[in-house]
Structures are given as C-alpha cells and as structure tokens.
Amino acid sequence: MDQGAGAGAGPQRARGRLGAPSSGMRAPGTPWARFSAWLECVCVVTFDLELGQALELVYPSDFQLTDKEKSSICYLSFPDSHSGCLGDTQFSFRIRQCGGQRCPGHAGEKPGDRGAPASLQREPAHYFGYVYFRQVKDSSVKRGYFQKSLVLLSRLPFVRLFQALLGLVAPEFFDKLAPCLEAVCNEIDQWPAPAPGRTLSLPVMGVVLQVHIPSRADTPESGPLEPSGHETLLPAPVVLPSVHELDLFRCFRPVLAHVQLLWELMLLGEPLLVLAPSPAVSSEMVLALTSCLQPLKFCCDYRPYFTIHDSEFKEFTTRTQAPPNVVLGVTNPFFIKTLQHWPHILRVGEPKMSGDFPKQVKLKKPSRLKTLDTKPGLYTAYTAHLHRDKALLRRLLKGLQKKRPSDVQTAVLRRHLLELTQSFIIPLEHYMASLMPLQKGIVPWKTPPQIRPFRQDDFLQSLERSGPQLTCVLKGDWLGLYRRFFKSPHFDGWYRQRHREMTQKLEALHLEAICEANIEIWMKDKSEVEVVDLILKLRERLVRAQGHQLPVKEATLKRARLYIDTAIGSLPKDLQAVLCPP
C-alpha cells in the first residue's frame, strides 16, 4: 500500500498488450466506439514487492497511454502510507493528459457535449480516474496483504455513476479477475451514448442502472427519472438520482460554518490545499468544493487526490512564482511544509459529531500552521466579503435534530449555493446583454455591428439599480467581491463563453436578415467579385450552422442554400465551374 516501500523502481510498464495507438472517442462503427463514449479504458494496478505499484492490465488493450500517464495512474490508484486504508475504499483523481489535446476530435465542443451544462462537458486535456482499492490480509502473498486497484479512466466528470459502476464490478473482479472485466467492457460497449437530456437504462452484470444525463435545459427542480423506453424493465432498475452530484452535506459536514467563505475562495479561483485523512475524504471534499459554483463552470485546475510522486509536483510546489490557481487534495502531511506559502490550507480530520452538530473546523491564521501535527482548521488570512448566512446554519441544525435524511440536507445546501451563485451572476448577465447591438442595426448587406466592450466601472455603477441585493438577502461588500472576481480565471472563462455565444447569435441574426432580403435586387448592380464574396460568406455560415455552432432555424438554412444556388446561377459558366466543381 505505501508508496515509499518499493517505490524507487517506479511503476512498471503495463503487462497488458498495447497495440495500435488509440486515443479519444473512436469513430462510430469502429471497435469500442460505444465504450469510448463513456470510458477511455479500464486499468488494473497491483502492488509488486520489487517494482512498487505496477500497471497489470489496460483494457481495451490497444488504448495508448504515455509512460508519464501510466506512472501517474499507478501512484494515484493507491492510498499513500499515511492513509492506512484497510478493506475496500473508493476515491477519484484527475490527471493532465500528456501533450495536451492528443485527439483533434476533442478540440472545441464534441457532438456528445451539445446541450450539456458547461460544468459537465468532456474534459479535452484531462483524464478522470475513478478508483476502487482493496487491501486485505492474505497469507499467500509475501507482504501478507492483497493490494489491488480497479480504475476507470474517463473524460466525463460522472463521479456518482462511475462509483456505482465500480461498486458492482470491482468486488466481482477481485474474485474472478480478467474474464469478468472483459465481459463488463463488452456490456458497456452496448450502452447508448450519454446524450444530454436523455434517461438511459445501462445493463451491467445482471443489474440495470437507470440514469438521467443532465442537459442545459434541465431546471434545478427536475422531477424523478422517467424511463426512456416503453418496456417494463426486469429486473427492476437501480435508479441513480444523479450521475455527478455528491452528498454535499456529508462532504461539507466539518466546514458547514465556513461554506460561504469557501464559496468565495472557489469563485475567486484562489489556491487551496485540502489535507485529509484519506484519498476518499480528500477527493470528495475537492469535488464538492469545485461543484459549489454550478451553474458556473469551474475554470481552474483541481486535483481530487495528489501525491509527491506526481509529475506536476515541482510545478505546483515551486516558490519562485505565486501559487497556481489550483485546488489540491492530499493526504501526506509533508505538503503542509512544502506549501506553507499557499494562502489557504484546509485541514480536515476523520468525520466527528459534536452533540447534534458535526464538529466544525476553526478559522485560524496561517501563522498558527505547524508543519507537524497540524490540527484541523481552515488556515487563511482571507476575510469574507459577504456576511455569513446564519439562517442556513440554523436550518441545517434543525434538520439534524429532526433526523432529516442527508439527501434533504444536501438539497437545502445545494439550493443555497445555487441561489448565491445566481444572485452573483445575474447582474453580470444583464449587463452583458446590454452590450449586444440592437437588432434594427443588423442590415443584410453590411458587416454586422460589434458587441460593445465590457467596461468594469460601468458594470459596477449599474449595481445600484440592478445588483445582487434584488435577489439575495445577504449583506456585505458585493462591489469588493466583483472587483476581485474580475481578476479571476472564472471571470475570464465566463466572459469568453458569453462573448462567443453572443457573437454566434449576431452571425445568426445577420444570416436571417440576408435570407429575408431580396437577393436578385441586390445582385443587379454588383460586380462578379462581390457576388462571389457573398457566396463564400454564405457557404461558410452554412457550414457553421450545420455544425450547430450557429442558432439558426432550418427554414433559414434552406433559404440560404437557395440564395447560394441563385447567386451561382447568375455568374458566367467558367466561374460556376470553379465554385461548383463536378
């Protein structure tokens, strides 16, 4: 289990056959195409007395991982020596794909991502690893312990689904090994694609998992799952309430008193180290923190579980520059010494109850940080901009006293965070919408007007009449929070996304204006060069619209095709031949 013993040799290369390279989603109709819509591959990591962690198997066997990726997977698939995890434990990690976007198909929005919320789209340059680790006493093994991990590698942040899948598959795999794994992968290769908005039945090992794939059109109050087929499913399906949402109340139990402060740190993209007693607590806390900005996409880096053996250890721990915008989950206290210069460190212990309420970590100054035997606490000099919502804490405490189920408490907490984020974002959305040119300024034969620039001072002035106070009862320094937000990666990510959507809307409105105009009257006094220029521009817009990059109606597309044909027909035969080669 420990990464110190036998770690000198580093992880062993995969013993599974690695054939022709394969990365990213495979083309429809090719082997493993449906499987790759859900998973990249399945890995088995074992502990070898001589080699340390070793990659025993990769399936499908032709999936290509670099040596650096294999090394990261091996180290991150086992708890380190400080965790003392006996029995079965589940956790997750996230690693950077070596060489960035290896598969061109992952640049931009993938077909499967259309309609998916921004926070649940496929990761273009990172892999998620979902781990089921078993350590049990075994006298037949030299070290006296059986230690093995089953790992699902995916680009989808569907932690709840993949943990449920591992819960079904891993215990069976540890008993029956490879043949069981091959059968499961073949079953996944029959699953329908994870299309946003659909409710799917996913058969695996005699069980049917029923899941809803979230869509941008979903409301926070979406009702219970409705079966997608007309048939009655036998056996009765196991209904997962969510593919990605964790039990937020359970994850945040030790920090409920500081949820708003932590929300601010996440909103501002502040560097945060989470030191936890196990990879399970570490990864759940990091994933809970990064999810509390929804529906905003979390634009910073985050590592649910990270070790000193990671290839990016030096990059994250350097003192020659400011700490990176990353949320780092660790279990090794060595990181407290290495990252003393980080502005925010959250140390959580094993979950404990204090009377009716979970024992809360205390806010402490960074100077109180001891490199050894650091007590649980949130070590930060940061002062929250917004006042704490005492009504939320009272409500959660009342829920505990009444023994409300954890999922009800989670719903209260999630709704609070959602309303907080929406209250913060709505004024930004309103101001951004005001920068859009008026529709009457969009005329057919002229370049469409530009979106006006975002002026921070103008926005801050607009808060007096349309600020968050209209939708949120919380008092505090909202202006100061916005000023800091403007410097964060999340403002940059939000602004780029909105600007791109507005530019596409402008192009769509311009295309509609052209298609509503009379092209024959326009062409009467135009040169051949001008007509050819229009044809090329219309074709380019048509290609983008057909690729769902422009929000255009089908009737407009038909009219655009007709206009292109009309314009080409008005040109001399030699030009027609160039524009429409046989």
TrEMBL record:
Pfam family, one: DENN
Assigned keywords, A-Z: Guanine-nucleotide releasing factor
Keyword Metal-binding on entry: no
Domain UDENN: 40-496
PROSITE patterns: DENN
Keyword Flavoprotein: no
Residue spans of biased composition, Low complexity class: 10-21
Highest taxon listed in the record's lineage: Eukaryota
Region annotation (Disordered) ranges: 1-25
InterPro entries linked: cDENN_dom (IPR001194), DENND6 (IPR024224), Tripartite_DENN (IPR037516)
PANTHER family to which the protein is assigned, alphabetical: LD41638P, PROTEIN DENND6B
Record family assignment: Belongs to the DENND6 family.
Protein's name in the database: Protein DENND6B isoform X4
Organism: Bos indicus (Zebu)
Gene name in the database record: DENND6B
